[in-house]
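User:
Can I borrow your eye for a moment on a structure tokenisation matter? Would you put together a sequence-and-structure record for a protein of your own picking? Please set it down just below, with no commentary around it:
AI:
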Amino acid sequence: MKTKLSICRKKARFASFDEAVAASEAPPFKLRAQMTAQGYWSAARALVFSLLCLCSPTIVHAQVCSGIPGLTINGGFEEPDISTTPPNPVQTFGSNPYARLYNESNIPGWSTTANNNRIEIWESGFNSTPSYEGNQHAEVNASAVGALFQDIVTTPGSEIVWSFAHRGRAGVDQIRVEMGAPGSSLANQGTFSTGNTSWSVYTGTYVVPAGQTSTRFQFRAISTAANSATVGNFIDAVVIAPLCDYGDAPSTFSVLRTDNGAAHRISAGAFLGSSADAETDGQPSTLSNGDDNDGSDDENGVRFGLGTSSELIRFASNPLEVTA
């Protein structure tokens, strides 16, 4: 078969794929190919898989992407199980399902700035409010003005992604995400307003400043529809994780973090395409386009049929471009 290959940094031509791969330097680079003859499809596949092995980060299980050791503890507020005792609550509301008020020492991972050190946990279904995931969630406006936070171990210069689910109680409640060094002025990462008819998920990224080995991740209640310091701002499904790219295959495959779905850590300069976007979980979809529809389409690493037509014609010269 006839193959023409050129790699941007090397400006070279090779007689075979093996020769091109062996001679290529480390990514990033762009490779263009024109191929003819019956072997087009097998050649194209071989080329793409070779570049994937060279340029892509190692594919790892989702456990590696579900959180850096020392980060998010009890992000779903599932501990303790408030349907049983101990620990003994400070106050109980309702009866199966419950909402219960605890001293912060009874809620693994979480602390509060409230002067009475109390955190309120709701069971799914209490006051007709379902949890976003699992069977429990927290109310930031508990029994006093305050904010919920965790102090997490971080690597200076690293970039992490955060995500959480938010819901109002009596109407539209407003909450703010803050991050920074414990004991310092925390930086506003965003203020979010959500009604009481459904949960909304918010996400963002944070670059850990130089020298900051411990980072406070905090939820501060800004306002509530009830105009009360003790009513409103539910949160659930808090995730703080390394930058990872998850899949969007149909749900019949293992896609989600909870199913140990395939994912890879995003490394600077090591990806196919012009960019790589981060998610905190897989996005299963029937057409495998959930990742494309989340606002950032990063699946442009391999392009077939460049120019005026995207069709591939057998026995004809068909262009192929791989950006890595």
About this structure: Residues 1-38, 51-63 have pLDDT under 50 and may be disordered.
